[in-house]
């Protein structure tokens, strides 16, 4: 009898293990639970405007054909770090083919404009979205893998193994109200256009975009008011041989901030790294752009191709209607088979200031290549140009700036360090412009005094593992100029931008480690942790700096402890980290220098120096 009872229990457990819920109605709402999972979707479904659907952690949503999920109401799909919610196809056997069919791909998640009257609390967190597929026969289907047309929080999600062989983006963000995309990963997607298309107000931060194959751009933006911060774009491949494309392409954008991102090891045609094309104000600061390769498309488009790290262009724009800034960046070991190993500028107004431009390679102008500049404003100052190579000659000629300048061009070039002085192409058919500032303010030499830079030019040596900071003996220390350079309060490594009274040349500010603490005179406070803890680059950001009343500390993870110490090592504040943004009240602190240390959950330490006014 006991054995029979045990067998019944086992049988019941087996039934529960394979329990599922079939979705056969077009409208869905209510609560999808783990007990009812997997949910097998047999038709197109939608959440109506006045309805809501809650999906629990661990739920599997398996589409049984080429169906879509449209949200007009409220969707609350919140998984956990250990139990994600999965949206995918039930039968994946046909996913790798390009033919239309009932197997192998579904038709995506469309977060449409909100139609309800109650507050919209829609959230998508810890979800996996995979195995969508769009073929030529799907051309008139108005959905993508993920389409967003409203203010919504999307975080800690994975979007992978999605594809289209049609002229359409996989991810489309078109909302006209702010939304947030954070801590998500986009990988192993295949696209016959730009993979991600932003035309929306957004805060896009701490995301990864990698191992994708695209016909044109990885990310394409055409928008106003956008923050693209602390993201990583890497190991993506452009497959179509289309010129004028890149990992990050900004066209007709204004008020866009591109801060603290890492764009590396991408392969493209025509351009690589970042493209700015038309629009208004775009600020590119504190990024590492390295090891990208721009190979020939065979088209030979000339003026619209080039720029291994960045292409700045505004052909046809009204002078004065736009302005680009490229500040505090490390641009290293990029290779471009057109002009401009690091940067190409084509009829654009720009400020190029306080960058580390090292070991880039091109087919014409290893560092900056300038083409037809007469009606625009260009300022190049406080940059380090080191061992950038012009491939046909295989030396470091054209070290800092060269190209075809219009006769009326006036380029301000001062307070830069380079292996050689600037160079103009004497064979220019349009005449020579005027380069000002190439006087005693510019420095030339054989060694800029970097900590541990790459040793060779080109994409073969990994610049991610190098340290481009300044040595104490660097000739670039205290040799820059803040006038017109728009310096931030912090440098590339988030240390105080001006350590002495004069800004340093390059992206880094040299500052010695804080002095050792005399533990014999302070026995009431712990004194470990500030000596030699300054990291050359970390994931903690502190702002504003200098500060008066409050400081905000941005950490990549919501855990650990933040400590604030004065220069003697005395602890003046300690808070638990419960969010990625932590605010400290400092209005009672005396003016001076302090050190903020974040101990994460593994007790790894990152320290920043701040000034309190």
Description:
- Among the domains are: 216-512; 541-612, Immunoglobulin-like (Sandwich).
- It is built from one helix and 62 strands.
- The strands form eight sheets. The protein has a 27-stranded parallel beta sheet that branches.
- The longest helix is centred in the N-terminal third of the chain and has 16 residues, at 2-17.
Question: Unreliable runs, pLDDT <50, ≥5 residues?
Answer: 1-17, 393-397, 425-431, 515-538
Structural class label: mainly beta
Question: What amount of the residues lies in strands?
Answer: 35-45%
What is the strand tally?
Answer: 62
Largest sheet: 27 strands, parallel
Average pLDDT over all residues: 81
Give the terminus-to-terminus CA distance.
81 Å
Output the keywords:
disordered N terminus; 3% helix; mainly beta; globular; 27-stranded parallel beta sheet; 16-stranded parallel beta sheet; Immunoglobulin-like; 613 residues
Task: Produce a short descriptive summary.
This protein is mostly beta strands and 613 residues long.
Mind sketching the topology for me?
Elements: H1 2-17, E1 21-23, E2 30-32, E3 39-41, E4 45-47, E5 52-55, E6 60-63, E7 69-71, E8 74-78, E9 85-89, E10 109-111, E11 123-125, E12 127-130, E13 133-134, E14 146-148, E15 153-155, E16 158-160, E17 163-164, E18 171-173, E19 179-182, E20 185-187, E21 190-191, E22 196-198, E23 202-205, E24 208-210, E25 213-214, E26 219-221, E27 224-229, E28 232-234, E29 237-238, E30 248-259, E31 262-264, E32 267-269, E33 274-279, E34 281-285, E35 288-290, E36 293-295, E37 310-313, E38 323-327, E39 330-332, E40 335-339, E41 343-346, E42 350-353, E43 356-358, E44 361-364, E45 368-371, E46 378-381, E47 384-386, E48 389-390, E49 401-404, E50 410-414, E51 417-418, E52 434-436, E53 443-444, E54 450-452, E55 467-470, E56 541-543, E57 550-554, E58 561-566, E59 571-576, E60 581-585, E61 592-599, E62 605-612
Parallel strand pairs: 1-3, 2-5, 3-6, 4-7, 5-8, 6-9, 7-10, 8-11, 9-12, 10-14, 11-15, 12-16, 13-17, 14-18, 15-19, 16-20, 18-22, 19-23, 20-24, 21-25, 22-26, 23-27, 24-28, 25-29, 26-30, 27-30, 28-31, 30-33, 30-34, 31-35, 32-36, 33-37, 34-38, 35-39, 36-40, 37-41, 38-42, 39-43, 40-44, 41-45, ...
Antiparallel strand pairs: 54-55, 56-57, 57-60, 58-59, 58-61, 61-62
């Amino acid at each position: 009898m006991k054995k029979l009872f045990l067998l019944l229990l086992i049988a019941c457990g087996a039934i529960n293990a394979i329990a599922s819920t079939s979705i056969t109605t077009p409208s869905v709402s209510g609560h999808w639970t783990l007990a009812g999972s997997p949910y097998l979707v047999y038709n197109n479904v939608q959440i109506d405007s006045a309805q809501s659907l809650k999906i629990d952690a661990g739920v599997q949503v398996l589409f049984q054909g080429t169906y879509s999920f449209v949200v007009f109401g409220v969707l609350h799909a919140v998984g956990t770090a250990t139990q994600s919610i999965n949206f995918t196809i039930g039968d994946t056997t046909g996913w790798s083919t390009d033919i239309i069919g009932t197997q192998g791909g579904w038709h995506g998640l469309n977060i449409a404009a909100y139609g309800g009257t109650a507050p919209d609390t829609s959230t998508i967190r810890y979800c996996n979205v995979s195995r969508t597929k769009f073929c030529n026969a799907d051309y008139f289907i108005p959905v993508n893998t993920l389409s967003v047309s409203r203010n919504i929080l999307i975080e800690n999600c994975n979007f992978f193994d999605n594809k289209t062989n049609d002229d359409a983006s996989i991810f489309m963000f078109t909302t006209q109200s702010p939304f947030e995309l954070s801590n998500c990963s986009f990988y192993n997607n295949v696209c016959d256009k730009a993979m991600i298309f932003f035309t929306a107000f957004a805060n896009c931060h701490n995301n990864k975009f990698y191992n994708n194959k695209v016909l044109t751009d990885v990310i394409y933006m055409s928008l106003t008011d956008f923050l693209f911060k602390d993201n990583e774009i890497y190991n993506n491949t452009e497959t179509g041989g289309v010129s004028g494309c890149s990992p990050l392409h900004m066209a007709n954008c204004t008020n866009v901030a591109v801060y603290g991102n890492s764009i590396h090891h991408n392969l493209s045609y025509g351009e690589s790294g970042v493209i700015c094309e038309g629009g208004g104000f775009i600020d590119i600061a504190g990024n590492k752009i390295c090891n990208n390769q721009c190979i020939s498309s065979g088209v030979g488009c000339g003026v619209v191709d080039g720029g291994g790290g960045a292409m700045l262009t505004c052909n046809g724009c009204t002078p004065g209607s736009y302005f680009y800034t490229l500040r505090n960046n490390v641009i290293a070991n990029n290779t471009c088979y057109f002009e401009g190993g690091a940067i190409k500028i084509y009829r654009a107004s720009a400020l190029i200031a306080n960058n580390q431009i090292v070991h880039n390679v091109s087919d014409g102008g290893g560092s900056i290549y300038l083409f037809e500049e007469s009606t625009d404003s260009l300022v190049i100052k406080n940059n380090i140009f080191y061992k950038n190579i012009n491939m046909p000659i295989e030396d470091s000629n054209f070290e800092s700036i060269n190209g075809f300048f219009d006769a009326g061009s006036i380029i301000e070039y001062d307070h830069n360090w380079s292996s050689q002085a600037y160079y103009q192409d004497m064979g220019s058919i349009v005449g020579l412009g005027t380069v000002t500032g190439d006087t005693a303010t510019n420095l030339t030499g054989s060694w800029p005094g970097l900590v541990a830079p790459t040793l060779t030019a080109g994409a073969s040596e990994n610049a991610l593992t190098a340290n481009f900071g300044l040595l104490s003996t660097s000739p670039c220390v205290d040799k820059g100029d803040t006038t017109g350079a728009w310096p931030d309060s912090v440098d590339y490594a988030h240390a105080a931008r001006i350590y002495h009274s004069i800004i340093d040349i390059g992206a880094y500010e040299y500052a010695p480690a804080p002095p050792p603490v005399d533990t014999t005179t302070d026995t009431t406070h712990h004194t470990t942790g500030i000596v030699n803890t300054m990291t050359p680059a970390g994931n903690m950001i502190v702002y504003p700096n200098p500060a008066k009343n409050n400081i905000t500390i941005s950490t990549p993870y919501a855990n650990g402890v933040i400590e604030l110490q004065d220069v003697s090592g005395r602890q003046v504040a300690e808070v638990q980290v419960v969010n990625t943004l932590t605010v400290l009240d400092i209005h009672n602190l005396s003016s001076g220098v302090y050190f903020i240390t974040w101990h994460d959950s593994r007790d790894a330490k990152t320290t920043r120096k701040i000034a309190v006014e």
